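To: structure desk
From: M.T.
Subject: fold request, one chain
Message: Could you run this one when you get a chance? Sequence is below, nothing fancy, just the single chain.
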Amino acid sequence: MTISHINSQSAHGRRRAPRVLVTDDDDDTRSLFSTILQINGCVVLEAADGEEAVRLAESSRPDLILMDGSLPHLDGLAATRRIRQLVHIGRVPIIFVSGHAEPDFRARAREAGCDDFLVKPFGLAELGGVLEKYLGHDAEAFAV
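Reply: Done. Structure tokens follow.
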């Protein structure tokens, strides 16, 4: 199976690895995301709670954020709202990752500022689609 992505363009026109912030309170889930993303050329930042996610989003300006819904200290919806208030980081895509597939929960995620939604469990093809959609379409393929 392959996932496609494009490296982001730097200010000087050179390609750089996209930065992805993975926010999940489960160590194994963060590790799995990190491994897949790093294999596929991404620089990965990890946050174990919503407050840490907001701090890292502000300081690192990621190209994409994967945001779990159930987090300690500050849940994923509240963290997303706070990140959306950080106008200097731009409109970074935030993908809400949750086991809650109900339409009202998806609506609350959109209202909080999420751009897309991945329902746990999901396949590599779904994750690959998100990476391709939000990190670029001019893709080079690589294996997962």
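Reply (cont.): Helices lie at 27-39, 50-60, 76-84, 103-112, 124-135. Let me know if you need anything else for the meeting.
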